[in-house]
Every structure is written in structure tokens, then in C-alpha cells.
Write a structure and sequence with these properties.
The complex is a heterodimer of chains A (310) and B (466).
Chain A (H helix, E strand, L loop, with lengths): L1 H17 L1 H22 L5 H4 L1 E8 L6 H9 L7 E5 L3 E6 L4 H11 L7 E9 L1 H29 L9 H30 L5 H30 L6 H33 L5 H35 L1
Antiparallel strand pairs in A: 1-3, 1-4, 2-3
Helix pairs in contact in A: 1-9, 2-7, 2-10, 6-7, 6-8, 7-8, 7-10, 8-9, 8-10, 9-10
Chain B lengths: L1 H33 L13 H4 L4 E2 L1 H4 L1 E8 L9 H18 L6 E5 L9 E8 L4 H9 L4 E6 L27 E7 L3 E8 L6 E7 L1 H13 L5 E5 L2 E4 L11 E5 L4 H15 L4 E9 L1 H54 L3 E2 L1 H14 L1 H15 L4 H33 L2 H32 L6 H7 L6
Parallel strand pairs in B: 1-13
Antiparallel strand pairs in B: 2-4, 2-12, 3-4, 5-6, 5-9, 7-8, 8-11, 9-10
Helix pairs in contact in B: 1-8, 1-12, 4-7, 8-9, 8-12, 9-12, 10-11, 11-12
Classes of the chains: A alpha+beta (310), B alpha+beta (466).
Chain lengths: 310, 466
């Protein structure tokens, strides 16, 4: 029984390496689609970074017609006001940032001078300077996390190994990392376009967390490759990689699976404010696992093949 | 004979370690349970240790207001900015406390490379959604008053205790104060100085022209008596007048520490030189929205946990069950830490914690997969378990380092929202490395004792492999 099982595994591992070009192509296509979607649809930047105000109200009995409210706001000097229905009895109002007087006036207008009683569920007004500060912080955090991860990769692959030099492992880890971040961002552009999702602080946090979570999968598999190279397992580099993949793909999938389970639970049952966050992280974990099995290691084999052709 | 004894001894030792882990785990769970009013019907009668350890909820969960003020420090000399901002925080903090808000947070965010060029004051008011009143109260200029002792001829009530003696403690022998015309408006500035002979700190006051005249009159009338300085209705200093001070230059000396002196200077200056503030941004979350978010977060956590537990038990059998036990202990440790540290929980923080439940079992999965591999290479269960833990360690360490790096940087640079997420996630990764490795190792090595039979091999195997 056990011998038969081993033969099965052997065929499995060669499956990925044999068809590596297909898997790499899938990744390339997905990344390209994401980039195109980013340019076509663009990303809406939310008030966290741009400044502005967001007011969410729920009416006690029935909500007034949107056109009436739009007309009422036209007569006031509020700049552009965007009203969106939410739930059965609510509206979300997006406007420029408001001071106290303007805020009171906004609520008065929404309640039609008290004719339609309402409850304010959420009010968020962010001045432009606070938005600028957040943008600045986000950029610094992105740079530092990226540097931190790159240094970590450099550290993890500091030992030189043959036949592929260690910096190439690091490079492949970074390539797959970019892949893992770009695809969820592409997905977010679709959410942004079709459901009005906006870039907020949590979007940045999600992107940075993906960086942290997905690099670990790749490193676990690369570690296995180097261990097997040392122990001279497999007759060729591609066979060693294949065997290593076979030994580690299950744990790679399962470690991600448990995280994806809790993320999906967070998406379906969790608070409204973290829904897109959970969805983006789920996508990040999914493509992170895909890239560590079907992209990073096949790319290593491809590089080795190019090297030996020269 | 000897071998048998040693075996018994090892067995006993393992059973004791398992018991210790279980008892400690239960104790932590007991604490979490006891200190949660929703779970403990007898909560009102618990000791203060339990009562004072609630989960601390952030504004987005408890409902409340988050205000960011910009402080205009253009009128303050560069070196005095920190002092002025501390004084400002001090004043606002006392006002917010007067407002009757439970656990308000008032903090200064200094300008810098990361936070931009403005000095900011951040005020969190949990439970306050009627912000108009609060902002009006916060925004007013601090009021500094000088008061003099009221005449001593007012009658005093004396209470005779049950034993026939007069209760001396109940007699109000302290003087009462009446307002004067002198206020912080006439105070030019206060500075902290050190006596040239004694090196003791003293606070020097300088009044403007009108203030000098008023102060001269007050000191002349009250020699040997106290002059009380009130800030927003509360006394901050009650020095005794030694002599008439006609030139508007007064010194408050006494045995205060430099820190106390500095604080007094800050308070005096806040009345004299308030830093003008303006509201930059404001967020108000209704209590219902926050309550819904908490309920949804708890639901997501429970469902996520159950599905992960089911997966672990079905796929990894006995080791899976142990991993679930370790996960339970991990969750109780984290909840207890949230209460004891305490950690302010936000929606993002709860998300971080839920994600950490998924990450916490990663270490177990890495160990179990290695264990499976070792069992395949015909090792005994004992050897396989030892090798599984030993060989999986480097993978566990490496796969957690990158998450810790991200969490640390996010915590360092984040806004409160990001900090909450980074803290729970980072804590989760650290605690889970301990729980997944230590706790499951103790349990697994205990279960090894069931021997090497077919049943044992089945229980330690996993997945679809035979």
C-alpha cells in the first residue's frame, strides 16, 4: 500500500513542474487583468485620506424621497452632497468636511425640519489636514513594511545554495509577494466600481497584512527545497523542487485554509466595517497560497532551465 | 525492575504536567468568565478584582465621539511648545472629567516627521454622542481665578459622636474662599525657577498693569492669610501671603518637587496663555451601531473557531483534538490579556484576533504534517512526535516572523484603528507560538503512553492516508 502511495505522490509533484508554464501564465494573466482593471476603473479614495464627511442616519418611520433631499441641499451652500440609501430606512450622506454648525444644519435638512424624525447612527468628519497626515502615515508604513519584509527575505536566504543562487530565491519570493498584493487590489477595483467600496485605512492595513502573511508560505516551501538540495534528494533540480513541493503543499494549503476559514466567517458574520477588509485578506491568502505552490517554485525551475541552456 | 520504576516516574511526571496545564487553563477561563457581567449572573457580588476587569471597548464598538483638535502654537516659543501642550491637555482633561464622561482619553499628538507639522490634541469621549455640548465645553478658554479667604466668623457645625466625643475630623477648619476681580486675564506669565541658595524649585508669577494693582491690593489686605488660585472651579494652589507685593512680581515657594512645580506653571499659564484650538475632525458612532458590531464580531469569532476545530478534529484525529484544546487555552489566555493589560478593542482589533485564531493552529498543522511524514518513515510514535516538533520549529519561526514584522510596523505608525488591529494580531502570533508548541507538546507526549498498537497509530495518523 505504502509503495503505491509514494508513486501517486511522485506523479503529483511532476504534474505542477511539468505544467509550470500553464500555472505561471494563469498568474501573469490575473496580474495583468488586475493592473488593467486598476487603470480602467481606478480606485475611489475615501474620506480617511481625502478629508470629507460621512453621515449615516436611520429614519424612525419612513424615509423621505431622495429627490426631495437632493433639492433641499441644492438651496444650501454645502458643496457637492452625495446621498445613498442604506438598509430599509437609512441614508448615507457624503459631503465635504463639516463644522458643528454645518453638521446641525445637515441633520435639520435631512429630517426635513423635524418632519421626518431620524437617528444619527454614525458621523465622521475628517479635515483635509488629518487626511493628509493619514496618507503620509500610510505611505511611510507601506515603505517600512516592504523594506522589513525584503530584509527578512534577504536574511532567510542568506546562505548560498546551488544551482540557483540565493538572491534569486529572494527575488522570486518578492515576485510572488507582488502577485499576492496586486490581485486583491485588482479585485478591490471591481468592488470599488460596482459596489462603491472606497480606499480607507483598513484597505492599507489589509494590503500590508497580506505582505506579512503570504511571504511565510513561500518561505516554508523554499526552506524545504534547500533542505532537500542539501540532502541530495532528486536527480535534477526540477525533481528536487517537485519533491519539495509534494512534501509541503498540503501544509501550505492547510495553514492558509484555517486562516481563510476564519476570514470567511468574518466576512459573512462579522461587523459591517470589516467586510471588505476580510474579503481582501481572503483573496490575499488564497492567491498567496497559489503563488507559493504554483508560481514561486515553478519560476525557480524555469530560471534554472534558462541558466543551464546558456 | 529499575526500568519499570523509571517508566512509572516518567508517566507520573507527564500526567502531572497535563494536569497543571489543565488547571492553569481552567483558572484563566474562570477569570474571564467571572469578570464578564453577561456570562456571570452573580456578577454584582463579585470582588472588585473581577468587577474591574471588563473588556475595554473602543469608540467604534461602545459608541461615542472621537475629536481631533489642532492647537495653534504659533504664539508660543518653540521651546515652550511641549509645556503648553501638556498644560492644554491637563485643562481639557479636567473639563472632560467635569462633563461626567467615563474613561475619557485626552492625548497630545506632537508634530514630527510621521505625524505632520501640526500639534494636535485628540479627545475620545466614550458614550457621548451629543457632541455639541461637549465641544462647546472643551472649546472655551480655561478660567483662572484668584480667591481670598472668607471671613472666619461664619459659624461651624460640630457633630457629637455616639461615644460622646466631638468628631474632630468632621469640623471644617479649612478656610473658605471668595472670588476677587483678579483672573488669569491679568497674569502675564508664570515660570519655573530655582532658588539660588537652596536650589529648591519655585514658581514666579508676573502680572500686567491692571493685574499688578489688583494683586497689590489683595496681598495688602491678606497678609498672613491664604490666596487660592482656582482653575475651572478647582483650587490648584493655596499659597500664604507673606507681605504686600506692589510690583506685580510674585513667587510661590514651598517644598514642591520640580515636577509639581512644572505642572503648576503649566496650569497657571493655561489660564494666562491658552493655546487656541480648533476642531479638525470628529467622528461619532451611535451606540446601536457599536453594539451590532460587537455582536457580529463575537458571532464571527465563534463560527470561525467551530469550523476550524471541526476541520482539525476530522483531519488530524487525536492530534487535532489536542490542537483544539491548545486553541481553547490560547483563546482564554488572549481574552484574559485583553482584560488585564488592558487592550482597547475595536472592530479592527476583533478582526485581528479572529485572524489570529486561524494563524494559531498553523504551528500545529506544521507539526502534525511533519509528524505524519515521520510516521510514514516507520518511526515509532514516540520518535515521530519528538522529530515532528523538532523539525517543524524552523518553519514555524520563519512563517511567524514576517507577520510580526508587519504587525510591529503597523503598531508603531498606526492610527488608533490600525494600532488595535496590529496589537491583537501581533499578540496573537506571539501567544499562539507558545500555546501551539508548549501546550500541545505536553498533551501529545502524555497520549503517547497509550502505546504503539494499531488503534494508537490510527489516532495519530491523519487525513486520507492509511
Amino acid at each position: 500500500m505504502r509503495d503505491f502511495y509514494l508513486v501517486q505522490e511522485f506523479q503529483n509533484n511532476m504534474f505542477i513542474i511539468k505544467h509550470k508554464k500553464i500555472f505561471i501564465s494563469i498568474s501573469i494573466v490575473l496580474v495583468l487583468l488586475s493592473v488593467i482593471s486598476l487603470f480602467v476603473f481606478g480606485l475611489k479614495v475615501g474620506i480617511d485620506f481625502n478629508g470629507g464627511a460621512l453621515t449615516e442616519v436611520v429614519y424612525k418611520d419612513s424615509r423621505p424621497a431622495q429627490a426631495d433631499l437632493d433639492a433641499a441641499f441644492k438651496t444650501l451652500d454645502f458643496g457637492s452632497v452625495l446621498i445613498q440609501p442604506t438598509g430599509d430606512l437609512g441614508y448615507i450622506v457624503k459631503s465635504l468636511d463639516l463644522n458643528e454648525t454645518q453638521h446641525v444644519l445637515l441633520l435639520k435638512t435631512l429630517s426635513q425640519d423635524g418632519k421626518s424624525p431620524l437617528e444619527e447612527k454614525n458621523f465622521n468628519s475628517i479635515g483635509p489636514s488629518v487626511g493628509k497626515e493619514l496618507t503620509r502615515k500610510a505611505i511611510i508604513a507601506i515603505i517600512l513594511v516592504s523594506l522589513g519584509i525584503i530584509f527578512f527575505i534577504a536574511f532567510a536566504f542568506r546562505k548560498v545554495s546551488r544551482p540557483v543562487s540565493s538572491w534569486k530565491y529572494g527575488l522570486m519570493a518578492i515576485v510572488s509577494l507582488l502577485h499576492d498584493v496586486i490581485i486583491p487590489i485588482g479585485l478591490f477595483t471591481l468592488l470599488s466600481h460596482f459596489y462603491g467600496a472606497e480606499i480607507d485605512t483598513l484597505f492599507v492595513v489589509a494590503a500590508l497584512t497580506i505582505l506579512g502573511l503570504s511571504v511565510s508560505d513561500t518561505i516554508v516551501i523554499f526552506d524545504r527545497i534547500r533542505e532537500n538540495l542539501r540532502n541530495k534528494i532528486g536527480t535534477s533540480f526540477s525533481e528536487t523542487v517537485g519533491k519539495s513541493l509534494d512534501q509541503s503543499y498540503m501544509r501550505s494549503i492547510f495553514t492558509s485554509l484555517t486562516v481563510i476559514i476564519v476570514l470567511l466567517s468574518l466576512f459573512f458574520f462579522g461587523p459591517e466595517s470589516t467586510k471588505y477588509f476580510a474579503l481582501m485578506l481572503t483573496a490575499g491568502m488564497f492567491f498567496g497560497t497559489y503563488s507559493s505552490i504554483f508560481l514561486a517554485s515553478p519560476l525557480l525551475v524555469l530560471i534554472e532551465e534558462w541558466q543551464s541552456k546558456k | 525492575m529499575w526500568g519499570c520504576n523509571i517508566k512509572k516516574y516518567i508517566m507520573l511526571k507527564k500526567i502531572i504536567s497535563i494536569l497543571i496545564v489543565l488547571i492553569l487553563g481552567s483558572a484563566v477561563a474562570f477569570f474571564v468568565f467571572k469578570s464578564e457581567p453577561k456570562l456571570n449572573s452573580n456578577f454584582e457580588n463579585e470582588s472588585s478584582f473581577f468587577k474591574n476587569s471588563p473588556f475595554r471597548l473602543g469608540l467604534d464598538l461602545s459608541g461615542g465621539s472621537h475629536l481631533i483638535y489642532k492647537a495653534d502654537v504659533s504664539g508660543v516659543q518653540a521651546g515652550d511648545v511641549t509645556v503648553s501642550m501638556d498644560a492644554l491637555r491637563d485643562v481639557i482633561e479636567r473639563r472632560v472629567n467635569l462633563f461626567g464622561v467615563s474613561e475619557p482619553i485626552v492625548q497630545v499628538q506632537s508634530s514630527g516627521f510621521v505625524s505632520g507639522s501640526e500639534e494636535k490634541l485628540i479627545v475620545d469621549l466614550p458614550g457621548v454622542t451629543d457632541v455639541e455640548k461637549a465641544t462647546a465645553m472643551i472649546g472655551q478658554t480655561p478660567l483662572l481665578e484668584f480667591k481670598t479667604e472668607a471671613p472666619k466668623d461664619a459659624p461651624q457645625t460640630v457633630i457629637v459622636g455616639k461615644n460622646g466625643k466631638i468628631d474632630l475630623g468632621a469640623i471644617d477648619i479649612g478656610p473658605k474662599f471668595v472670588s476677587t476681580e483678579l483672573t488669569g486675564r491679568y497674569l502675564k506669565k508664570a515660570t519655573l525657577e530655582f532658588d539660588q541658595n537652596t536650589r529648591e524649585p519655585k514658581v514666579s508669577l508676573q502680572f500686567d498693569d491692571t493685574g499688578t494693582k489688583l494683586f497689590a491690593q489683595i496681598t495688602k489686605d491678606n497678609i498672613g492669610k491664604m490666596v487660592a488660585i482656582y482653575l475651572d472651579g478647582a483650587p490648584i494652589s493655596t499659597p500664604v501671603v507673606r507681605e504686600e507685593i506692589p510690583n506685580g512680581q510674585a513667587v510661590i515657594s514651598g517644598n514642591f518637587t520640580p515636577v509639581e512645580g512644572k505642572q503648576l506653571v503649566g496650569r497657571l499659564n493655561s489660564g494666562a496663555l491658552p493655546v487656541p484650538i480648533s476642531l479638525l475632525s470628529r467622528q461619532t458612532i451611535g451606540a446601536t451601531l457599536g453594539g451590532d458590531a460587537v455582536a457580529a464580531g463575537v458571532k464571527a469569532a465563534i463560527i470561525g473557531f467551530l469550523v476550524v476545530a471541526l476541520f482539525l478534529i476530522l483531519w488530524y484525529r487525536l492530534p487535532g483534538l489536542i490542537a483544539v484544546l491548545a486553541l481553547c487555552i490560547y483563546i482564554t489566555i488572549m481574552l484574559a490579556l485583553f482584560k488585564l493589560l488592558p487592550v482597547t478593542l475595536t472592530a479592527a482589533g476583533i478582526a485581528g484576533f479572529i485572524i489570529s485564531i486561524g494563524i494559531a493552529v498553523d504551528a500545529n498543522i506544521l507539526i502534525f504534517e511533519r509528524l505524519k511524514e515521520e510516521l510514514h518513515s516507520d518511526r515509532t510514535i514516540i520518535n515521530a512526535v519528538a522529530a515532528g516538533f523538532h523539525r517543524a520549529w524552523s518553519s514555524i519561526r520563519d512563517s511567524n516572523i514576517s507577520t510580526i514584522i508587519s504587525a510591529m510596523i503597523l503598531f508603531w505608525f498606526g492610527t488608533p484603528l490600525i494600532k488595535g488591529f496590529a496589537l491583537t494580531l501581533g499578540m496573537g502570533v506571539l501567544v499562539s507560538m507558545f500555546s501551539a508548541i508548549m501546550i500541545s507538546r505536553i498533551f501529545l507526549s502524555g497520549f503517547i503512553l497509550i502505546g504503539e498498537g494499531k488503534v494508537a497509530r490510527f489516532l495519530f495518523s491523519s487525513g486520507i492516508s492509511k
